[in-house]
Structures are given as C-alpha cells and as structure tokens.
Amino acid sequence: MDILQELNYRGLIHQLTDEEGLAKKISEEPIVLYAGFDPTADSLHIGHLLPILCLKRFQMAGHLPIALVGGGTGLIGDPSGRSTERSLNTQDIVVEWTDKLKKQLSRFLDFDSSVNPARMENNYNWLGDLNVITFLRDIGKNFSVNYMLAKDSVDSRLSNGISFTEFSYMILQAYDFFRMNSDINCSLQVGGSDQWGNITAGLELIGKSTGNKAFGLTMPLVTKSDGTKFGKTAGGAVWLDADKTSPYQFYQFWINTHDNDVVKFLKYFTFLAPEEIARLEEQVSASPEKREAQRVLAKEVTELVHGADAALSAIKISEVLFSGNVDTLSGREIEDAFQDVPSAEVTGEIALIDLLLAVKAAPSKRQAKQDIESGAVSVNGAKVTDLNKALTAGDGMEGKYIVIRRGKRNYYLAKFV
C-alpha cells in the first residue's frame, strides 16, 4: 500500500483536500509535510499520538516530516475544541514547555536519517519577529471577517465570546503553513479534525500569496464506543511523560480497551501489518476472554512511547499483581504499580494489625484480626496468619516497601521512612 492507501485502511483520513492531486504529487516525489504541537502543558498526551504517528508513517513511506512546536502560537492559544478562553502563559513557561515537547517528539521521528530526515521547527522563529503593521497589512488583509466567522473553531465560541487574541489564532497558523511552504517547500499539513478550519485558512493564504498548490489532511476525533472520552482516566489525562503517567499506568490504560474499540485502536496506534490485525480481530470474536488483542495493543503502544524495557516491566507488573508474587518487583516497579493504592509511611517496628489500620486495609482492629486469622492477608507475597506478627524496615523489599494484599484484588502499600 502507498501512504494514502495505508491511512485509508487504518481509518485515519477524516478530511482531505484534493485527494487525487495529493496522490499524484506523492507518487512523483517525496513530499514535505508538517503537524503542529502547541506547548499548552509540559507534556504531550495520547491525544497527540495520531498526528505524531501520522508523521512517522509518512517518514517510513519515504517522505519528509516536520514537527512544528508552537513557541509562538503557544503564547496566544488555539480556540479550537474549547468553549472558553485559554489562560495565557508567560513566555518563560512557554519556552520551558517548548523544550520539553521537542524532546518528546524526538523519540518518535528519525532526525538523523541520511535519506529523508525529519525536521523540528519552532514558529516563534518567524512569529516572534512580526510587528502589528506587517501582520495586518501583509497577512490579515487576505482574510475577511465573514470567512473567519464561518469556521467552526470561531463560530462555536461566539455565544460565549472570543477575544481578538484567540480570534487571530487562525491567521497565525495559516502564516505558519505559508512560511514553511515558501521557505522549505512544505505542501501538506496534517492535524486533528478540529484543525480543519486552521488548515484550510493556510491553504487560502498560500493560494492568494504565491499561487502554490498545497494540501490539508485531518484525522478523525478518537472516540470510545461507550461514549466516554478517549485519553481520560479517573486520574486525568494520559500523558506521554513517564513522570506524569508511569509506563505501568500507561500500559493499563490500553489493556483496559473495550472489545468494541480494540481493533480500531490497533489500526490507529500501531504499525502492525493488516494480516496481524485481521488475526487479532478474529481472536476478539472467537475468544474475547483471552484479551489477546488488548495485550498486543498495550505492549505495542507502551513500547512505542516508553521503550521496550518499560513495556516489559509493565507486563511483568501486571502478571505479578495477578499472581500475587510481588516479591519479584524492583523498587521502581513497586512505586509504579502501587502509585494509586491506599498507602502510608511508617517508622520503627509496627504490629501487622496496626499496619492494616494505617494503610486502611481494615476499618478496625477486630476486622484486621479476623482477616489475618482467615488467611486473607498477604505481606510481600506471603500469607500471614500470626496475629502477633510485627514488621520493621528489614522485612521490607529493598529495606522499605511492604506490599499488603487483602483478598484477591485489594492491594495496599506501606513504606518505612
């Protein structure tokens, strides 16, 4: 399959300007394309994966991707997909976040290829030098207010109000496309479906200013079959930064994918061949209880984002928690696995009964005694029935961690300090 056929197979084309023209251009020579990423936080999240992986797919097909970090537009704020105005961040914060996003993006694209190297750009390099007169005379004159009001990103905000600052965002993004088309022959912009208005504004500016032919492609909004928002958990967004969402938590997000979504996500977020995806689709129908497709999805995406070692560690933690053999975990794995369970810090020597109360594994000493006597309590993987059992740091894994299991699924963590 060529790149457009592959994107079609994977359901990754939502809107596309002049498919025939783009197909012809791609067949004749490598195309330069870009996707933009504004530094609105100190990390990208899984909502950014589709455009990132789209750039990667184009590079694997022999084309030249550009990851554009919005050091300039990040100071303004994109109204797309929002019902209220963004809070403006200081320039120092935007510079800091821009640098962090650059490091994250460099994990996905090959910037050292001798054939079709990826590029990293920062639109502050040209937006930062614009003065208001140049902006209004040379760029703003190409856009009528009626044209801008008709765009969904603006129209959806009119009832709640939109500042001139965010109203102007579309023109700045259009100018990004114009500059990269003029400076480095970039002729394709890709993005999420909410970027269609901004992308077509760029095509408008390029056409009026240079007459060059350029193209736009958007990917679908990722949705879940149960109606809940993709990329959100009880703890908030699923981040690509391992310090914000650990590899184990990241792995768990994907392995909990519903049967109705898993094949779609395999197409969206992995580079598995169609034959392998078809095989996994058959497994979902024939043996859904085995959850093979979910395990493959979780492994592939975790490895892609965090590396092979992190993926293997996440798999190990999952298996250990299922079996209860927690004594094989490292300190880092314990921290990852039990980040969200009830926990407590303790010192000196503490009776197991008191420890169960401290970590809230039991509501009372009476219940704690009953749980111990009935064999419902395990400490670091070993069942304990001794009511007089006491613990010190020396009993902990790596000299400090006590993992308590009550019943089959309830875990608690105590840490000696």
TrEMBL record:
SMART domains recorded: S4 (SM00363)
Signal peptide: none
Domain RNA-binding S4: 351-412
EC number: 6.1.1.1
Motif 'HIGH' region, residue numbers: 39-48
Keyword set, alphabetical order: Aminoacyl-tRNA synthetase, ATP-binding, Cytoplasm, Ligase, Nucleotide-binding, Protein biosynthesis, RNA-binding
Pfam families, per database record: SYY_C-terminal, tRNA-synt_1b
Keyword flag Mitochondrion: no
Residues holding ATP: K232
Role summary: Catalyzes the attachment of tyrosine to tRNA(Tyr) in a two-step reaction: tyrosine is first activated by ATP to form Tyr-AMP and then transferred to the acceptor end of tRNA(Tyr).
Annotated HAMAP family: Tyr_tRNA_synth_type1
Name of protein: Tyrosine--tRNA ligase
Annotated organism of origin: Paenibacillus konkukensis
